[in-house]
């Protein structure tokens, strides 16, 4: 709404004849800002406001303008503008705890403040939030590219029933807090994982291994095979149900946990196929060598069953937090690996030279052979298989241990903060998923009503200013009409 269009001086925007400061009204909160403060920020919105020459230019920059009070109105977030005013005055720009980082980025874009002006910690947080937002948008785009519900009207009822069944199936296999079926499904999954781990441990006992190598199938071996078959059957059924209920099959197959499921399930079926083929197509005259090779392949495939333990990450918030932390801290882990490699390349030649000249030559035979000692020493494990005996070698060992402690401590702080933040995020997401849908709808309605009440109480000054501007505009319009009526 434009006010007093016929009485605006040419220098209103620059303060000529209007004093040395301007009143900036943002969301009902007024700020008196000197024009000289904006000299260092000519590209910001307020800096452009200073260089305006007429009313049209001013209205392109702000939402409204009161010429009588030299007051500029902006319908924006007052909390974010308070931080921007602090930046204009003191040069410090930080994110707000009570405001989303992406929303604050939009405020910076509106006021013409560059993101690079943020403090490094806040800028890092903003970059992380932008990366998460882009990843979420990419997943949404992949899901939206799938065939939708735009089918023939005659099949709407069938699709509705099918969608309801798929939604209940999705809640059962993905959300243990959705109800009793989800809890039972999660408990059965954990029980079968535990049974598989125990079976794998029992199958490595010496007496069972001797029976397996001799080719005899006793009752104990048969029982273990039956347990393994039942567990693999359950895991196959669970994987199939998850694959059916998912909307994007490609995204499902690229998920790390689903890849682990396939790696853990497939060895059982491959073992059955290899075992059956080895019994049918045994080459003539191959002797025991062929059986030993087949047995080695089978043992390697069976050892892959240990990946079943990783399935617990579906039901463990701690393991999910660990995986999310590893994914977010790839740069920190890479930096830690770089530190260890550089230190290993430095201390291995030193300890080799020291021990080859003055110590035990049998332990440190070469520089590559000393890499193992350097890694074990810097990580403060110390197996004791390679020990420097000379004084120079012990000095090098002490230096490697101290440097290892320091190098390990550098990235740990950042990794710890990422782990804490990831745990809080997953905990909040789990709490949201545990709420029932009707309760969530009621809470959404109540939250919207509370937000509207808070808005009504938080911006009384903004409402008052809007009413004042409207009354001024109506008065000016009536004055213009009366002047036009008086003209011949």
Automatic annotation (TrEMBL):
Extent of Basic and acidic residues compositional bias: 432-442
Gene Ontology cellular-component terms listed: voltage-gated potassium channel complex
GO biological process: action potential; protein homooligomerization
Region (Disordered): 138-160, 432-460
Molecular function terms from GO: potassium channel regulator activity; voltage-gated potassium channel activity
Entry's transmembrane regions: 184-205, 225-244, 256-274, 333-352, 395-416
Annotated ranges, domain Ion transport: 183-424
All residue ranges annotated as the Potassium channel tetramerisation-type BTB domain in the record: 24-121
Subcellular locations according to the entry: Cell membrane
Keyword Cell membrane in annotation: yes
Primary location: membrane
Signal peptide: none
UniProt protein name: BTB domain-containing protein
């Amino acid at each position: 709404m434009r006010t007093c269009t016929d009485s605006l001086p040419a220098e209103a925007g620059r303060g000529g004849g209007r004093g040395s400061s301007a009143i900036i009204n943002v969301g009902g909160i007024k700020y008196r800002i000197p024009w000289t403060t904006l000299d260092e920020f000519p590209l910001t919105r307020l800096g452009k406001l200073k260089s305006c020459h007429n009313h049209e230019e001013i209205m392109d920059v702000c939402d409204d303008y009161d010429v009588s009070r030299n007051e500029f109105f902006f319908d924006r977030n007052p909390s974010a503008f308070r931080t921007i005013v602090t930046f204009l005055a003191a040069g410090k720009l930080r994110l707000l705890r009570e405001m989303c980082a992406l929303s604050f980025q939009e405020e910076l874009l509106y006021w013409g403040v560059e993101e690079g002006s943020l403090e490094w910690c806040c800028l890092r947080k903003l970059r992380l939030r932008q990366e998460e937002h882009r990843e979420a948008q990419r997943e949404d785009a992949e899901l939206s590219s799938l065939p939708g519900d735009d089918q023939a009207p005659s099949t709407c009822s069938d699709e509705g029933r099918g969608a309801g069944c798929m939604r209940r199936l999705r809640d059962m296999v993905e959300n243990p807090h959705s109800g009793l079926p989800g809890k039972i499904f999660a408990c059965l999954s954990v029980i079968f994982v535990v049974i598989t781990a125990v079976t794998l441990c029992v199958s490595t006992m010496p007496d069972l291994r001797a029976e397996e190598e001799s080719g005899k199938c006793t009752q104990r071996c048969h029982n273990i095979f039956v347990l393994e078959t039942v567990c693999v059957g359950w895991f196959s059924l669970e994987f199939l149900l998850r694959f059916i209920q998912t909307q994007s099959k490609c995204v499902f197959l690229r998920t790390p946990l689903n890849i682990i499921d396939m790696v853990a399930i497939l060895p059982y079926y491959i073992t059955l196929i290899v075992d059956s083929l080895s019994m049918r197509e045994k080459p003539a005259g191959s002797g025991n060598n062929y059986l030993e090779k087949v047995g080695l392949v089978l043992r390697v495939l069976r050892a892959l069953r240990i990946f079943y333990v990783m399935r617990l990450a579906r039901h463990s918030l701690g393991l999910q937090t660990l995986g999310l932390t590893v994914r977010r801290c790839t740069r920190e882990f890479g930096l830690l690996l770089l530190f260890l490699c550089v230190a290993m390349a430095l201390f291995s030649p030193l300890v080799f030279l020291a021990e080859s000249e003055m110590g035990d030559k049998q332990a440190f035979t070469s520089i590559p052979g000393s890499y193992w000692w350097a890694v074990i020493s810097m990580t403060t494990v110390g197996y004791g298989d390679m020990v420097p005996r000379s004084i120079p070698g012990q000095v090098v060992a002490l230096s490697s241990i101290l440097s290892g402690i320091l190098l390990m401590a550098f990235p740990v702080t950042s990794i710890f903060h990422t782990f804490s933040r990831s745990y809080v995020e997953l905990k909040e997401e789990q709490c949201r998923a545990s709420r029932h849908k009707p309760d969530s709808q009621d809470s959404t309605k109540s939250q919207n009503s509370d937000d509207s009440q808070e808005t009504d109480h938080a911006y009384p000054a903004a409402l008052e200013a809007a009413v004042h501007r409207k009354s001024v505009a109506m008065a000016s319009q009536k004055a213009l009409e009366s002047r036009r009526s008086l003209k011949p």
